[in-house]
Fold each of these.
Amino acid sequence: MAAHLKKRVYEEFSKVVQIPHEEAPAKKLRLSKPSKSAALHIDLCKATNSTDALQYLLQFARKPVEVESVEGVVRILLEHYYKETDNSVRLKIASLLGLLSKTQGFSPDCIVDDAINTLSNEKSHQVLAQLLDTLLVIGTQLPESPAVRQRLIEMACKHLSDTYFGVRIKCLQLLGCLGMVDSPLNKDNEGLGTSIGGVRDVQSIISDYFGDQDPRVRTAAIKAMLQLHERGMKIHQIIYDQACRLLSDDYEQVRSAAVQMVWVLSQLYPESIVPIPSSNEEIRLVDDAFGKISHMVSDGSWMVRVQAAKTLGSMLQVSPHFLEQTLDKKLMSDLRRKRTAHERAKELFTSGEFSSGRKWADDAPKEKLDTNTVNLIASGACGAFVHGLEDEMFEVRIAAVEALCKLARSSPSFAEKCLDFLVDMFNDEIEEVRLQSIHVLREISMHITLREDQLDTVLAVLEDSSRDIREALHELLCYTNVSTKECIQLALLELLKNLNKYPTDRNSVWKCLKFVGSRHPTLVLPLVSELLSTHPYFDTPEPDMDDPAYIAVLVLVFNAAKSCPTMPALFSDHTFRHYAYLRDSLSHLVPPLRLPGRKQVYGLDSVDSGSGSGSVGSAQLFLQQSLNRVSTIQNLEAPGAQDLLDFTIRDLQRLGELQTELAGAADFCATYLRCQLLLVKALQEKQWNMAVPLCLKQNVTATAAAQQILEETCKLEFL
Amino acid sequence: MPEIKVTPLGAGQDVGRSCILVSIGGKNIMLDCGMHMGYNDDRRFPDFSYITQNGRLTDFLDCVIISHFHLDHCGALPYMSEMVGYDGPIYMTHPTKAICPILLEDFRKITVDKKGETNFFTSQMIKDCMKKVIPLNLHQTVQVDDELEIKAYYAGHVLGAAMVHIKVGSESVVYTGDYNMTPDRHLGAAWIDKCRPDILISESTYATTIRDSKRCRERDFLKKVHETIERGGKVLIPVFALGRAQELCILLETFWERMNLKAPIYFSTGLTEKANHYYKLFITWTNQKIRKTFVQRNMFEFKHIKAFDRSYADNPGPMVVFATPGMLHAGQSLQIFKKWAGNEKNMVIMPGYCVQGTIGHKILNGQRKLEMEGRATLDVKLQVEYMSFSAHADAKGIMQLIRMAEPRNMLLVHGEAVKMEFLKGKIEQEFSIDCHMPANGETVTVTTNPSVPVDISLNLLKREMALGGPLPDPKKPRTMHGTLIMKENSLKLVSSEQALKELGLNEHQLRFTCRVQLQDPHSDPDTLHRIYTHLKSVLKGYTIQHLPDGTVMVESIVIKVSSSAEDTNTKVLLLSWSYQDEDLGSFLSTLLKKGLPSGLC
């Protein structure tokens, strides 16, 4: 039976997929036969003024050009380029050249000479910039030709001294993209009349432009340097000082790029030692960079702040006391060095001389200014995360939360310290921030144990009206360690309240309690009698078995009982009955228990699955195969994919009917594939990218599909 | 050297009565015009007789700028404009203009109707005064007159609070008013661009405080209120009607909603409703969250907060009351305080700063017995909590602003002298700029180094660019030749030819000639040829010509040889060069004085 099915599926499969492959390319060829270059030539000759010529070029640019005719077209374009007097037309031609050399299959080395020639005769700065851009494209198309590269780099160096910023930017881009990674660049060539002689490498040439008068050029210089780094060149450490200076640039894009540059260097040379200005102290480079980037978290521009906050998260090698300083706005004493040994003795202040503003009148100045102290970190860098987390823009806050997460994951002690800050973020006014901080707390929860007051703040969020937040919080609670039984009680209480208020959360709440129970068996134990409302002497009424709240309590207790064998002794009779019922109906939530004097109910599954008959084996194989087939779906054209999905779903449903052992898996896969199918269909309608007023009427299908997808995925999650 | 003079009439080493006079580039500007909360006599207003003994102020001031609507920044405005006399322009932001008259009217009512003072400004005066106000927008540059321009920046603190950048020519001053560098539940943070003013006049209320996270403070506040309510106590929060009050309202409102609390929250004055109205209107001045969500629900439409009636104070059971004024020196907050002070279950939370002499200041300093008017004493049994919710920048914030604006000099006002001294030291250490802290009536003079703009002709510039190296380096000065023409108050730098043409003058040639004696046994033409080859070998890259008329030309320098009359071996070289070639000429003369090398053929 299964074999028969298989065969049929294969037939269908091959039929559907291969047809579109054969026809498509033949058509294209025929359409494009008439010579493009000739037509273009005639058009351009016809053009009487520059506007006409531009029009022709624009029209031409809209149509694709095939590989064979690219070269001809390029020749025609160049010919017109030499004749053309109007700057804008030449600019357009230059940009077309770049566009054409990107054509797949066309090797642009034949036009390198021409492009370089035009470059040396060109007067207009804009056209120059465009030509350099074209050269950049050509250069990136020819990665295997060092000679061409060498020439291009020479051209770039020559034009670096242009007065127009656009040209300088393009030159720097060229250097960044094509600069030799392996060998130093010999700049002592003919035609370079500049005073710099000898061997100079790309890095020092680029770094000269860190001090350019135009901020755009400065940015381009840093970007070029970053590009070099990405291509695998090791950036020299001397750049660090220059990059640090650029952190205080007047323009935000420069500062933003400089933050990246400093970060790159801090990753390259984390352990080098840098001096602190105006003192003889020295610290590790990564610490210094960390301090400087922390400083940028209070920058004037929020783009830079986001950048800085994000960057902080990836500096894992930083020393712990620098890390802790980010959570305190006052300069901690261990980041200040006193010069005399006498003062070193009384260094154990917890924090500096400023007051905290929490108590009245504790802000009288205490410590006199000691000019002999040296700050290892600029005082502006203190409390970077305190600033980041209470920033005005939520983008910055989210970035800060993410950075905290990354740092806390690698440092348990820091995780402990930043816990309060993260919990405070649950009260943020923007939902996205709250959600993010809940997720983050979940990720670091293996390092921490929540105190009661912290749990209180966390649980308060359960009343949030957003389902996303509540579910994120349930998930968080699954992974949280708590310290006391009061915490468990509190959590249960709040979860039940949540269940009462939002009955749709049922599945999620139960799942959450399952984990809470299995995580804290010893804390649940003293609560059992209270939770199940049993009494030592009196029989209590049997609770309603269909009450979700009661089920929730049972899920908690049973999961705790799994690793706590003394617990079942506290159960009353009906609890055992309910256990048997729940074990069958909600088997994914209730674990098998070794109950005293009870028949071992759980043996059933394991015995069954072991005695796999031949038919089950082949069915399993079939399931596997059809799933494998589906996994190739992203390579298929849309109609083929849809058909394949349709058939696979049908097969799976059938399989589920035939082999009850595999019904669950088959059903799950079928539902999942149905979601996929819906998504593919919805995307294919192309109605979602229409103007809003138009689509209102037509997007009924899309909305319906979206709705259905949501429903199905929800089912999948709790299946 | 031009100078900028700053004289505080109020707020110099003091909080309250902000009023600062600035003279910049021949313009006189008054920044803020406030009253002092601590005094009830003449001292409550700034001493305007400093400006002039008699007559009106209009002739002496070019404009008045009000930073925000708090009375210690605008309370003396009607007095100054209507009673002392000032008809010039008064600038303030739109929200300030809207809310300021409400507060002034309230202030007038308390002083005149309740305390029975006479010789105070009237409602009509307030109206007349407001007619002189010109509203400002954020980041809008307003030209007060031909030279003076002002620009407002967002300052946080309260709705409509602004920092002002005042500029005359290339001299500039920034006055911060009160500002806040940390955003709160309803307002954003202060921001300024790198305008590099000559003086930054900053408030320094929290000069010695660095606050910890704002979120901790919020949590503490909510916890304290919650605990007192659960105990059945009453919470009094003295606030000024506008500003902190709205932030705390939003905070409590959302907390009440979340925790589903039932205890009533009251807001004491009728004035608030009017003011809340403005908060709903000026959404653009609030923070990101409120700006984004006001379409669905305006955060200032409170559900749990109701208006207060005097009789409610005696109601049993827990309640939270916001009452004005914030320093417990008068009005409703003081009345409620007196009623509740005897019960230790109750609590008063002071969310902001209290000026010396007010009851707020006394109880915060731990005084448990207060003397009221009429010799009665009041035992203070209720809990007193302080929480720094006031929206002033802390020391860190002040430093941050300095870093943002990069001023050349710093001037601290609006703070206590001891604390200022401390911060002054810190600023001088960290930024190495001068920091001043004048007392009231004391003048600080700062000399500036203004740049003088000169128009340069494009041709000249291009020519110089072509001459010089690859690119102008902004950090290195470069010399260039040109002629500076000063005509009718404008400066122009042009090439000398153009200058001659423009002025109708003839060009005078100035040539230097010099004789150099040289021992050389050859004949004249030979010597000349020898000189030619010598120079050719020394001066590479110059055009050197041997002309047929017996001269050598190096660029435009002429060299002639003649034998001396007495001794034919002694040759006399005649060098002649024009003024423009002075460098090359003097080089040649010293070169030739050394004689020709012997190895020359």
Amino acid sequence: MAACLPGLLRNIDLVKFRCSCGKLSPIYRQYFCRYCLSLRCWYCVSHEVDSYFCGNCLESMPSTEAKMKRNRCGNCLCCPICLHNLSVRASSHSVPNPADPNKPLSKKLYYLSCGQCRWTTRDIGMPDKPAASGLWADPENLHMSRIEVLIEFYQSLASIEKLEKQRKKVSARRRTLTMYDRQTGRRRSSLVSSFSSLGLSTSQPPMEAPIISPLSELPPLSEEFYSSTELSDSSTLPQRHAVPESQPPSRRSLNPIHRQLVLRRNARCRGCDHNLCKPDYIPGSIKFKIELLALHHVPEVGLVAPRNPLAFSVESRVIISISNPSDQPTSLWLQPLSNRELDDVTATIIPPDGELHLAAKDDMAEFEEPSSGDAGTDDAVVYRRSNKIHVATSVTPHKPAGDVVVALRMAYDYHNTVMALQSKGETAAKVSRLSQTLILNLGSVQL
Amino acid sequence: MSLFQGYQLGLNDKSPVILDIGEAYTKAGHSGAGGPQCIIPSVVRERSTGNTIRIRDCFCDTERLYDALVEHLYTIYFKYLLVNPKERRVVCVESIFSPTDVRETLARVLFNHYECPSLLFAPTHLMAMFSLGIHTGIVVDCGYREILSVPVVHGVPLVAQSQCLPVGAKALHSELRMLLGNSTVRCIDGIERPLQSLPNDTINEESIEDIKVRACFVPSRERAESHRQRNSDEETPRYAPSMKYPIDNRGVLEIPGEVRESLMELMFQLDDEQRSIATTIIDAVLQSPIDARKDLIGNIVIIGGSAMIPGFKHRLMIEIKYLLNNTYNGRLSGDLLRFHDSPSKENYTAWLGAAIFCGLEVLDLRSIQRSQYIKLGSVPDWCTVTQPQIEPILIKQSSTTRRLL
């Protein structure tokens, strides 16, 4: 295991699996659906919102509250300069004591300070507050009242339009409806409602458009621009964009920003609509309620040797490692893929023929002495330890430049535990033969 | 925002998502809010290569654009908006002149990959009118790639009369890079060198944009004219003082006052074809129907991020008045000139208009539903005659006619 680790750490993108949608990605970024028995990558999984929480105080929030607060945490504030967390600092001020004018009282006043860039609320002229939380005022959008009036105006026009459309529909149907009425002699309620809606429209006069008369003169540039030299007085674009509604050009008008909430995501298989990944309810917990990662169901393949670049047209020995993730022993077959199927293959690989046996994953194995392989002896296996084997293959690059890319097909026995649970009669898990396509990048050709 | 203000504005559980994917920045947010939730650069980090690219650069390659849009919308939905794409109707604000391929790809991404219930493509310039409550006016969009002046008459954007000038923020950035070539940089080792002698990547695109936003401004017309017309034997003119701009790990750049003042002249000076921003506005008005011209020149709406540079709007007004009196020989009176002040910053005015419009119940009458898209296979374009149109309803108000568009 220790011998493999540097190989894995080098680059996780060396071995890519082909997902059911056709895209390539490393196994660490894929999910495995136990119901469809196929790999699902980031593209072919539908992502959904699970819950919201604040990244700083880890407080979980229901969606309605998140909407009200515009996806911001109520308690945590961020520095407008560097978006780091603001911490509350206390300072004591002496205040004249109303009871005894000679003895001044010391009162605690609070201000916010950033640990990263040393910005404080005093820099913008905000007075220190007597309470640690709750009094840090948010500036309102000054245009809000005007926008509300505009929305009301357009809503009145929209309701008139809807009534017109209903009236058109009803008048188109009215002929057939009156014929029906002659037969039954009864008035239908829909006719009554259409008449009442007509009454509504005539009684309500349309609102006047709330237009503010346009300006004939625009204010000229203030004289201070012709003499300003300090760059640090003005805010940068990202700082302005962090507060879209105010976008203050001056650094002195930047107020503390409420921290943006973070989302917890569900991943759902597009084929069968089952959940593949569902996090725990508590934001601080890293456990999952449902965790169907490909790493836990598909044998992991890694590159062990060689460390040096391969030479063109020379048959080199390449050792790959395969490890079994399940707690049942499995059998594996490796086959090369023909060039016709894949475009970017630049080398041929001759994997070992025949069945490769892999032992079950044993969590206690790392604490025990390495035992001699009890999963049988296969010729091509170079090294064996608990659920991991190294196999030797030979690779011949047939392009003189570029990366050496080989393709393999790996067929293995998958023990499906979910099907066993569903059919109560059977005790043994259902075994299915699955196959995955692998693309290995062995580095660039030696020049 | 106070607790109940959201309910009043219709910020309910299922309020639609408004997206404005511009060339430089994307504005996204919920309908009913006073401003977008986020303004982020329109760049993505490709999963296949790991490079950071502009979405605009993928416009020619549909597959690459598809992947880039999937990534970009993922960030918008799950990092900023924090909503489930399957549950929210989408409104996409985009210019009438955007390519059909791009619109189709965006619709494919939203309907097939994210499974949105419905989609509406709202024209940018029309939405800008919604933020003001007017139905006629000329919208001047100062964007990244170009300045676009679109006259809108009674809710109809006049496509044939629109004028375009390819001087946007992109042109300003390359001009700034050229003008700063001779400026000195005081490097870490204490030696002063001109910027052009240092490697090309000393100043990157973000720093150039930063310099443009923080150091540059638009001076008055008299000042600009006096700088332009000075003779060489006169004394050196008074420019604004230079500003020191620190470059990470390389040194301190000294931005000369001349560059600070004269960068924006690129937009206001008449070029070789005698065109500038002011001429695009006047030409657009003069090409419009004669009875609409008074209303157009009396309702000028300026949107777009480039218009937020200090002194821009005032200078634009002076330039239009000057040109009307001199070059255009009184074909239009300068006294009719009126400018609107929208209840938003200029870079999200169109977004706000869409947010106001799309909070109404009539959104469903105009959107393309997912079932319709799956049947049709594509979205109807502005000039389509073969596909079924969504008909606009005309509302008559007693003596005057008002239309909801």
